[in-house]
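Running this now, will post back.
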Amino acid sequence: MSKTALDKDLKRVSGLNAAGSDLSRKLAAPGLALVFVLGVAVWASLSVAQGPSTTIIVIGAVISAYMALNVGANDVANNMGPAVGSRALTMVGALVIAAIFEASGALLAGGDVVNTVARDLLTTTDMTGTTFVMVMMAALLASALWVNLATYIGAPVSTTHAVVGGVVGAGVAAAGFGIANWSVLLTISLSWVLSPVLGGIFAAALLAVIRRTITTRLDKISAARVWVPIFVAVMTGIFAMYLATKGLSRIWKPGPVVTLALGLGFGALGWIVAMPIVRRQSLRMENRKKHVAALFRLPLIVSAALLSFAHGANDVANAVGPFAAVVTTLGSGHSQAADIALPFWVMAIGALGISLGLALFGPRLIRTVGEQITKLNEIRAYCAALSAAVTVLVASALGMPVSSTHIAVGAVFGVGFLREFISRRDMEFSSVPVNARFVDAGQLNATPEEALSRARKTERRLLVRRQQVFGIAAAWVVTVPASAALSALLYFALDLFVA
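Update: finished.
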């Protein structure tokens, strides 16, 4: 009896230890995030001259750090999700690469879209400096809260749209509907539909080309030796143009001719480098689709890293843009500053916060994008990553504002739906007897058992999870109105507190 009692006591102690360890792991990430936010508060207080506005700047820095953590937790999944889902990268490898390239893009070429937020979305001529500061603070906090909620439920949303909704909601609460530039908002709304559709079309088209040139050929190895270097050249050229026009826009803005020349030059360089590498790798491969897909692994990793760099360069302003507007306004004394600056210490908050948020909270959204929408291999993930860059380039040339989040997720949907279409078509063809394949399949008599078996096969051919499609689409639709409503409520609360 004593031995039995001792065993029970040991089991209780072991259970308590396991529960304690599990609780410690769950609290570690929020604890590190809290330490970062407190560190940012101290950093902000030391980075600005002491005065009446110091407290406001410190509070704004804390909110901005919170937003940066959420941008890292949610947005970066779009770049690394396909690489992790295809098993080209481990989760740890993806987090390390994304953190390095996101921070590098933000610090070296951080894009300044603050003027778009302050000047294009709102007409601030009749708004006092104090009111403008409250609008920006409310917008930043509201967008951070909304992105945090989306991350918690596992929905990849556009932080750009969250910030836009927050700015417009607080602006309307402060000065009425006439302050919003509704034509700009209409254009942004159209991008909700255009972004995922364009991303899906480009990704599906690229996958169809790869199927036709490589994976459906009898001699896949020989076809891969010819075509994989060509696809690498296309990727290299496109990303050279992508980085020149988007990722490096803060430090260099080349014209169309120079951009095209860069694309052609780097494309040729990519082809020259890829030729011997692909040939050497293919010598040890079997003539199977799974083996040929491995040739796309390195291009996929490179594309994911470059997407992270460009994302950090462009979207760091989503995390710190409104805060930079607050700092500039408090420094100038009015809301109509000619240019809203993005100081290095402010940009560093965004860069570090995005990287830390990715490392602490990013894996959940990375799995959603990479694994829970549709099954990805190296080829499909490569198509999704490359189509994201192509879509942004085309949209930029046409002057359309698009969301990198919507494009990336739409690209994953595109390859999934194409696979589903091809799979169901092949299943229907193979289910018809050989001697009857030139007869309308609908005219063939089938027993109830055969009909049930065919229905079950068709159900299994739904290669895109509909629940994820509807859930993500719903989150996209409500992002702007939800962040706008929340921002308006926060503005009213701030206004009562200040009054």
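Residues 34-430+464-498 form one domain. More later if anyone needs it.
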